[in-house]
Amino acid sequence: MQRLCQAMALALAVIPASASALSPTSTQGDTLKELIDVIEERHYASRRYDDALSAQHFVAYLDALDPQRMFFDAADITEFSSWKLELDNVGRRGNLDPAFNIFNRYHEKLKRRLESTLATLPQTLGGFDYELEEYLVIDHSTMPWAPDREELDERWRKRLKNQALSLLLADKPAEEIPATLERRYQNQLNRLDQYNAQDVFQIYANTLAEQYDPHTNYFSPRRAENFDINMSLSFEGIGAMLQIDDEYAKVSRLIPAGPADKQGELRPSDLIIGVGQGESGPIEDVVGWRLDEVVDLIRGPRDTVVRLEVIPGKGKTDQRHVVPIRRNEVKLEEQAAQKEIIEFTDEADQKHRIGVIDVPAFYIDFDAYRRGDKNYRSTTRDVQRLIAELMAEDVEGLVIDLRDNGGGSLQEANQLTGLFIEYGPTVQIRSAESRVWRDGKRRRSNYYEGPLAVMINRLSASASEIFAGAIQDYGRGIVVGEQSFGKGTVQSLVPLQEGQLKITESKFYRISGDSTQHRGVVPDIIYPSLFDPEEIGESALDNALAWDQIAPARFNRYHDYGAIMPMLTTLHEKRAANDPDYLYLQDRVAIAQEARSITALPLQETGRLAMRDEQESKALVIENKRRVAKGQEPLENLADEEQDAQGIDVDSESATPSPEDADETRTDANPGDSEDVLLMETGRILVDAITLRPNTSVAGWAQ
Question: Which is it for strands 478-481 and 525-526: parallel, antiparallel or unpaired?
Answer without folding.
Answer: parallel
